[in-house]
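Worked example 2:
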Amino acid sequence: MERLPKGVYNPEFREQAVRLHEVDGLTVPEVAKRLSLPPGTLKNWVYAARQGNLAAVGKNQAA
């Protein structure tokens, strides 16, 4: 069985996703479903944003 490629998300997309959760008040599963990404990924971004490290997420990811 073939592996699916990992999603590559730009910093603006990550910021917008976190904003939907933090500012607009949507739950993590709601935002994840709307943006078609795994809820665990969004949860990691929200945690990183709260720590002030969202900009560092994905820096070492191959494009």
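Helices lie at 11-22, 28-35, 39-51. The mean pLDDT is 88.
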